[in-house]
Design goal:
CATH superfamily of the largest domain: Aldehyde Dehydrogenase, Chain A, domain 1
Number of domains: 2
Largest sheet: 7 strands, mixed
CATH class of the largest domain: Alpha Beta
Low-confidence stretches: none
CATH architecture of the largest domain: 3-Layer(aba) Sandwich
Structural class: alpha/beta
Radius of gyration: 25 Å
Distance between the termini: 75 Å
Shape: globular
Mean pLDDT: 96
């Protein structure tokens, strides 16, 4: 049984705490490793290393910092298959999905390699007579990321490449359920030439998180997870004076109008609802069938699911893998009975789906619950599994109102051949990320990722231009140079009309 340690000062760090947590292979149900859980002292050691490394790293040239990231990018490409296999072994997603996760993380690394352009300040000559004004973007100091189990490689790469490129040092607290990716990425950064202490990893549970939130030397915290935890992270970190971006949960609606290509929409619903076993914050979890197209959609989805292969990610034939833990699998499966008890119709029961894998794995096949209404728990709760609910409405107005009343606002999509309807949806829908005939509208790296309402706490989204703003602070400099003895004192407030 291997033991995974923390990563502090560019080396494995066992830490002081005797506490450890199990790491499982979800496809087999077998424990494969233990991971050390950080104590308060362990977190303090990581922050101290990051704080000590910050002055030299932040004062290093942009060419030096981006040079490290360019080398990291090359190492990431060379080792993409290894990282993919780590994701498969600890998260359970299929190999193609894990490879896609690595690729989307790589996109942000490449964006960060070009950060020099985005760190440029502004300059105004002659704002007043003999007075110039310019602005600087400077790093914050030590920043931290608290990341979820469902994307153990991609979500950390949403954060640390931009933070490091901007001159910050970083402490990462990944999910204890699939911790190996974080250490692997740390090793690649070291091999790329990142100085010791600039990037650190602490593993663990609430003890580590709470210390990160209250630590006086951490300037900013980024988080991705459930809404309840995101709200708590935001409130606590802000109370301690930190800059915070906390991305919460979702109930993403996929609206299908009668004029859409229903076969295409059904395929998209299967992909968006059941890919990665539904363990995505951008998964489509509500299919909104407008104007009587629900029966045909349900029938098309049922036919596709009948031929969907659920099995371990190591098999090339697998399209969907297991859930992350037995406990989570059981919780997700319980919603099928809850939905039926509330009056919904179980159109596809994933508990009976044929599984091409070991019986002890954490399996649940695709589930489709029809005739769902907004007052049911299967609609209001973020289930975070392969459960797709079908809500039937009469008009696009009804669909937009349904989304607005939901409370979440992460992503929403519409499938239609009507450009006017699509334009209206884009303008009016209450969501931060919108897809038009695209079921999973995750923005590319040079935009920013984030939702609205109860899906985001904080003002700035993650990666892209918002990521650069989050990991830097602006300083405005007003300067005047005159010959010695030429100035005269004045007690009035300076204005641009002053000479």
């Amino acid at each position: 049984m291997k033991t995974l340690s923390h990563w502090i000062n560019a080396t494995d760090y066992a830490g002081e705490s005797p506490r450890r947590g199990p790491v499982f292979n979800p496809a087999t149900g077998q424990q494969t490793a233990e991971v050390n859980f950080a104590s308060v002292a362990d977190v303090d050691a990581a922050v101290a290393a990051a704080l000590a490394a910050w002055p030299a790293w932040s004062s290093s040239s942009l060419a030096t910092r981006t040079g490290v990231l360019f080398r990291f990018r090359e190492l990431l490409v060379q080792n993409a298959d290894t990282l993919r296999d780590l994701i498969v072994s600890e998260h359970g997603k299929v190999a193609s999905d894990a490879a896609g996760e690595v690729a989307r993380g790589l996109d942000v690394v490449e964006f960060a390699c070009g950060i020099a352009h985005l760190l440029k300040g502004e300059f105004s000559e002659g704002a007043s007579t003999g007075v110039n004004v310019h602005s600087l973007r400077q790093s914050l100091g030590v920043v931290a990321g608290i990341t979820p189990f469902n994307f153990p490689a991609m979500v950390p790469m949403w954060m640390f490449p931009i933070a490091l490129a901007a001159g910050n040092t970083f402490v990462l607290k990944p999910s204890e359920k699939d911790p190996s990716c974080a250490n692997f990425l740390a090793g690649l950064l070291r091999d790329a030439g990142l100085p010791a202490g600039v990037f650190n990893v602490v593993h663990g549970d609430r003890v580590a998180v709470e210390r990160i939130l209250e630590h006086p030397d951490i300037a900013a915290v980024s988080f991705v997870g459930s809404t309840a935890v995101a709200r708590s992270i935001y409130e606590t970190a802000a109370h301690y004076g930190k800059r915070v971006q906390a991305l919460g949960g979702a109930k993403n609606h996929m609206v299908v109008l009668p004029d859409a290509d229903l076969a295409d929409a059904a395929e998209a619903a299967v992909s968006a609802g059941f890919g990665s076993a539904g363990e995505r914050c951008m998964a489509a979890s509500v299919l909104v069938a407008v104007g009587g197209c629900g029966d045909e959609l349900v029938d098309l989805i049922r036919k596709r699911v009948d031929h969907l292969t659920v099995g371990p990610g190591t098999q090339s034939s697998s399209e969907m893998g297991p859930l992350i833990t037995k406990e989570h699998r059981d919780k997700v499966a319980s919603y099928l009975g809850i939905g039926e008890g509330e009056g919904a119709t179980l159109a596809i029961d994933g508990r009976t789906h044929t599984i091409d894998g070991e019986s002890e794995g954490f399996w649940l096949g695709p589930c489709l619950i029809d005739d769902v209404t907004p007052d049911m728990k299967v609609y209001t709760d973020e289930i975070f599994g392969p459960v797709l609910s079908v809500v039937r409405v009469n008009t696009l107005d009804d669909a937009l109102g349904l989304i607005a009343r939901n409370g979440y606002g992460n992503g929403a999509a519409i499938f239609t051949s009507d450009g006017a309807a699509a334009q209206r949806f884009e303008t009016e829908v209450e969501a931060g990320m919108v897809g038009i005939n695209v079921a999973i509208p995750v923005p590319v790296a040079y935009y920013s990722f984030g939702g609205w309402n109860d899906s985001l706490f904080g003002d700035l989204h993650v990666y892209g231009p918002d990521g650069v703003k989050f990991y830097t602070r602006t300083k405005a400099v007003t300067s005047r140079w005159r010959n010695i003895g030429s100035s005269q004192s004045s007690l009035s407030f300076p204005t641009t009309k002053s000479s």
